[in-house]
Amino acid sequence: MRTGRLHAAIKLLEEKRESEGDGYRPPLSFRETPLLLSLLYSLTGEADKAVAAAEEGIRLGQKLKSPFVEAIGYVRMGHALMVQEKRPSKPCHEAYERALVLNDNLGVVRGRTEVLMGRCLLYGYEGDWLAARRCGLEGVEVTEKVRDRWFVAVLYHSLGIAAACCRKFEEAKVWFARARELFSCCGDSFGKAVSSWWLAYLSLKEGKQDDFCRNASEMLELCENLGYDFLLDKATLWGTLDPRASVLILREAKRLNICAQYAEWHLKKLGDRDDLPSVGYTLRIKTLGCFRVWRGEEEIGFQEWRREAARRLFQLLITKRKTLLHKEEIACFLWPDADPQTASRDLKVALSTLLCVLEPSRQPRSPSFFIQRQGNAYYFNLASGYWLDAEEFETLVVRAEKIVQEKPFEAELLLKRALDLYEGDYLQGATQDEWCLEERERLLVLYIQAAEMLARLLAARHEYHECINWADKILEKDPCWEEAYRLKMYCYAKMGNKPMVMKIFNKCTEVLRRELNVSPSPKTVKLFKKIVNQPVSL
Fold this sequence. Notes:
The chain has 538 residues and is mainly alpha-helical. Helix content is 68%, strand content 4%. The chain contains 25 helices and 7 strands. The protein has a 4-stranded mixed β-sheet. The chain has a 3-stranded antiparallel β-sheet with strand order 4-6-5. Helix 16 crosses helix 18, helix 17 packs across helix 18 (340-358) and helix 21 runs antiparallel to helix 22 (464-477). It is flat, with a radius of gyration of 26 Å. The mean pLDDT is 92.
């Protein structure tokens, strides 16, 4: 791994894990198979695999009563979640904090360094350079004492990423140069490749063509010859969390004839087209709860929209993203009471504002990358590599449904990820228009179904309090959802609290009568009677 042969390391470890089976007793160290695999998957952009392997490492540490193994599992979970979410998040911070507490209780100073590396990256992506620098330098100080030059290079590299994200470009170049030099001394070709990617990116932003040519040439040759393709089209721990950032590098490399065929191949993989402007960021769209949009790591502020009509137009195009919308149809959706001439004028102004907001560098009258036109119809470019929370939420729930019977634990992880995304109803508080309400209701039902599926999995694992918690969340959304009452009755029965069972059944009866003028279903009544008379099973 430390010499850059990542795919060979993954193959070796996957074969090792397969041969070990359930009878393997690990050596209780950071060299556990799932822990190493999780790190490697994070480095190569296999986020889902990285999360699953980290979870396996955490459970292994708990099973073997090894706080050290468990701590490393949480460190690797922090890395994996950062790559999976393609941004810093509360779960990342929680994983690193848990790891730090476990490690500090053991008094292993060396064990702090990887946590500090992860936190350096997190704070950098959040724009907190002082906190990022403090974590990175503390890690360097500890690591230099044990003379681990390779991990010092990793920390230098992390400081470089944090500085670049905080727009401290001169400092970033110094850290990346130091990292690349140490990676070269250690014989780590992957370390050289990721450092060169960042140096090429910074050179391009600063318009320094000679520096760009040198760094891009080294990086692309390493990627092409050693199979580091993932560095250019996936979110990775030491590369970029936004794969579209590579588009700018690849376009310039193609223009300058630097590994031109390889660059063109990657541009096609990223959906880049010569007839559209080059956009070096992923558009991240949050619609569940408060509506928010990011251009890469930069959030579009409320004032930047300038016109509410531009926001509503974008919300409409996202909601109807699989449909061509004729301009007259858009006018009917957004300005139903306006005369055709006024509606056409308002659409033109809103569209112009929207294009400037999404693509500030776009030249006037040039085509848009994100909002495209076909005759008099408009549509959102589904090949733009965007990220939409509602779409991700639905995808995760569908994946969980397919494996819930054979792989309940993996399904549980997928459901938790999905439900974490549901921070509120679709475009909550933004609009009550018909075109929005239909999608809002559909996603709400999917949320309730996902929460019910998770609650049932938790009940099957005897996690009764957590099951009750999710049943309550279901009832907050729909107080007439009978399965939530049944789950609560079952859990309280298993905990030996029959008075609560009586109370929940009475509550169910009262709500159904008041809201729907019906009695509880035969299934609910049957479960209640069984609980009253004897213990039951779902």
